[in-house]
Every structure is written in C-alpha cells, then in structure tokens.
What does this fold into?
Amino acid sequence: MVDAVLKLNILHLIVACCAGATIWALLREARGRSLRPSQLFGAIPSALATALLLLAMGAPETREPGLWLVGLVIGIVLGAARGSFLKFQVDRMYSRLRLPSGRDGLWAACLLAFFTLVTFAAAAGPRLSALEAGAAVLVAACAGYLAGRSTALWRRSLSAPHQTLHNILS
It folds into this structure.
C-alpha cells in the first residue's frame, strides 16, 4: 500500500514538473524576447508528456483515450489556426524570431497546469470520474494547441520577410 502511494506521489511530482517546464519554456516568448525558430518547439515535449502521463495515470475505468485524442486534435487545429494569424518578426541575419503578442502560448501553458491540478484534485478526493477525464482531455487540448501553434509559426517563418531586430540578445 505504501509503495503504491509513493509511486503515485512520484508520478504526480513528475507530471507537475512537466507542467512547470512547459510554463518556463514559454516565458521568453511571452515577454516578447527574440528566440531561435527551433525554440518554438521547446515547450511541446513537456506539454505532451504532461498530457500522456495524465492519461496513463487515470484509473482504467475512467480513461477515455478516444476522447483524449479528440481533445488533442481539436487543440492542434485551434493552435494551427492561431499560429497562421499571429504576427511575428524574423531576422534572417541572426536567425532570430520575435513574437510581439505571443502571450497566448503562456496562457495555454497556465491552463495546462491548472487542469493538471484539477485532475489531481479529482483523483485525490471522492472519485469524480467525469471531472478527472474531462480535465485530462483539456490538458491534451492545451498540449495540442501549443504543438499546432508552434508548427504553424515555424512553417510561416521559413518564408517570412527579413526584419532587423534591435537588441537581438535581449
């Protein structure tokens, strides 16, 4: 019994660290600082790890992989739509990119962390399987949003016109 509780607590800690890493990876982008185009994908592994671990940690009778996949796909579509219209600047000389209004990624990461906490609370208290499954689907949607947004931005950055960014390292 103690081993099961200890493993569960360690898994919760790993998921919480992944959610925190997602937020941390998006801070520079949200502040409007320049970054390499490859850094657009920095938050995606931790966001997807958070979503996958929450799906795996759920009780077998409350797991909804089909619904989870629908949430992920909806998130990817919404993120790709947002990434297709988001304004950004590209400096080709230094291979840098800046998102002047890129706080939506940080908001999505904060929602991911919030719904992770909701999933933890639903699992710890009296079994609210619908709440636990719904929060896990929303975490998957947030992770999908970040993945779709980053992919669309990166694709657009390949053909974007050059703009000189001042204070390139700030």
Q: What stands out?
A: Residues 2-157 form one domain. Strands lie at 89-91, 96-98. Residues 2-30 form the longest helix (29 residues).
